[in-house]
């Protein structure tokens, strides 16, 4: 005939419980003068004060879960017992927690209470250190000795304070593999409890949203994970969606004006939760584009067209690895990684592609850069442009005059060593210097000459020589 009175039970049920309890105690104590009405009255008034109190009127016993929420967070050290034997291998993990699983205060009132005996009680907790438990028991016994009367209210009140504002422990060390009385991992239980209690705290609070200036219940608010600023969820969704749709990527951060530079960056997952995967993808694309444009030497796109991930490159390292698809490639030639000591094989794009590149818009340029390498492309564009400038120059100046007799000489083809048809002077077409009679070619063979190795420069012969070797091999200097 158990009759537990829970806080949800109606008054009439509680009354009938009391009646049954009285009846049963009378039966149990036939011929005895024991009258439990004083104890029952105490239990009932306690229940009115602490609705979470569980009471068994029949047995004159009860229990209450004392919440543990110290003003300052507690450092919980989960000690790895393996690491304990060898101090150098300390694998302890420290958590800073705001809530710990409640401590259970259980009591039973003997017949002699409160006249001559205190309540029989226990403080149960799988994590509370034994010494702290002993201290609490001692505190309660001191109260009993001072009051010597109905003490349950004082007991519970003392414990509530001892587990919140007057909590004295800053650190609790527990074995990482400890199990609670039901065989579950104590560590998992403690960590889960802290998360759930924090969510409950948040949801029952009220916050003022700085965007819409309304007071909102925690259930319709979001706390930004990095900086902990709170706004109403709808305001954040609207704000970030507008920023991304209109391309204001740098504004996708905590909207609080005083937020710290390091913390106002958003948690990626949280942003996805707020704006949805589609807008988050657009945000990622815009951000990558911005990073590459602002710093082309540090950031580049993954050369794989299906991936296009943003790759951050170490300026001193040729090897680049895409964080998205793990493609390892050479940062110069953009081809799959060929090792540090291999040649970077840069291919010369066909002439029509170079022209297409020069005249093309951003999209065409980007596409060609991806296919032929950005550096490679700009290198061949530079070669093409200097060739063309030189050709223009030659076209303009295919006639020159002899430096000795000033006779006009027309250059038709062949090398740059000229012979005046009037005075037979040898001279250089490029610099118009008069050349030595016995060896006019020394002008092109001496390192100290301005025309060193330029015997055929700008001539048809040089162009023909180039076409023999279209692949330019560049030894990478590391
Ligand atoms: Zn709002
Ligand atoms: Zn913030
Ligand atoms: Zn990739
Ligand atoms: Zn390469
Ligand atoms: Zn001449
Ligand atoms: Zn010369």
UniProtKB/TrEMBL annotation:
Sequence similarity: Belongs to the RBR family. RNF14 subfamily.
One BP annotation, GO: protein ubiquitination
SUPFAM superfamilies: RING/U-box, UBC-like
Top-level division of the source organism's lineage: Eukaryota
Protein name listed in UniProt: RBR-type E3 ubiquitin transferase
Molecular functions (GO terms): ubiquitin protein ligase activity; zinc ion binding
Catalytic activity from the UniProt record: [E2 ubiquitin-conjugating enzyme]-S-ubiquitinyl-L-cysteine + [acceptor protein]-L-lysine = [E2 ubiquitin-conjugating enzyme]-L-cysteine + [acceptor protein]-N(6)-ubiquitinyl-L-lysine
Enzyme Commission number(s) of this protein: 2.3.2.31
Compositionally biased intervals (Polar residues): 1-16
Record keywords, A-Z: Metal-binding, Repeat, Transferase, Ubl conjugation pathway, Zinc, Zinc-finger
Region (Disordered): 1-35
Domain spans labelled RWD: 41-166
């Amino acid at each position: 005939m158990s009759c537990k009175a829970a806080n949800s039970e109606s008054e009439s049920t509680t009354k009938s419980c009391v009646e049954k309890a009285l009846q049963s105690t009378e039966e149990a104590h036939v011929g005895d003068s024991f009258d439990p009405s004083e104890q029952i009255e105490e239990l009932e008034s306690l229940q009115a004060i602490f609705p979470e109190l569980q009471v068994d009127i029949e047995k004159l016993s009860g229990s209450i879960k004392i919440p543990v929420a110290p003003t300052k967070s507690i450092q919980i050290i989960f000690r790895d017992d393996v690491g304990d034997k060898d101090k150098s291998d300390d694998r302890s993990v420290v958590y800073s927690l705001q809530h710990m699983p409640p401590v259970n205060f259980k009591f039973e009132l003997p017949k002699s209470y409160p006249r001559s005996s205190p309540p029989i009680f226990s403080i149960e907790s799988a994590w509370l250190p034994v010494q702290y438990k002993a201290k609490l028991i001692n505190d309660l016994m001191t109260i009993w000795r001072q009051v010597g009367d109905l003490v349950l209210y004082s007991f519970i009140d003392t414990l509530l304070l001892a587990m919140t504002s007057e909590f004295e422990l800053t650190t609790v060390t527990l074995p990482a593999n400890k199990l609670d009385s039901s065989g579950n991992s104590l560590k998992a239980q403690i960590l889960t409890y802290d998360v759930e209690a924090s969510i409950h705290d948040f949801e029952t609070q009220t916050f003022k949203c700085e965007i819409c200036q309304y007071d909102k219940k925690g259930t319709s608010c979001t706390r930004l994970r990095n900086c902990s600023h709170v706004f109403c969820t709808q305001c954040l969704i609207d704000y970030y969606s507008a920023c991304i749709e209109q391309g204001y990527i740098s504004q996708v951060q905590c909207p609080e004006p005083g937020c710290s530079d390091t913390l106002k960056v958003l948690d990626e997952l949280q942003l996805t939760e707020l704006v949805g995967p589609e807008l988050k993808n657009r945000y990622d694309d815009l951000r990558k584009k911005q990073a590459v444009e602002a710093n082309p030497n540090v950031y580049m796109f993954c050369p794989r067209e299906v991936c296009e991930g943003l790759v951050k490159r170490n300026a001193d390292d040729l090897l680049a690895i895409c964080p998205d698809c793990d493609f390892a490639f050479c940062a110069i030639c953009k081809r799959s990684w060929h090792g540090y000591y291999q040649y970077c094989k840069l291919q010369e794009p066909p002439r029509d592609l170079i022209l297409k590149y020069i005249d093309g818009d951003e999209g065409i340029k980007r596409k060609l850069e991806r296919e032929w390498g950005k550096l490679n492309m700009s290198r061949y564009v530079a070669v093409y442009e200097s060739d063309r400038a030189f050709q223009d120059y030659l076209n303009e100046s295919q006639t020159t005059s002899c430096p000795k007799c000033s006779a006009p000489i027309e250059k038709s083809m062949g090398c740059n060593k000229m012979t005046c048809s009037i005075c037979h002077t040898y001279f250089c077409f490029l610099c118009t210097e008069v050349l030595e009679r016995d060896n006019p070619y020394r002008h092109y063979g001496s390192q100290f000459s301005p025309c060193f190795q330029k015997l055929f420069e700008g001539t048809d012969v040089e162009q023909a020589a180039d076409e023999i070797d279209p692949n330019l091999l560049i030894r990478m200097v590391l």
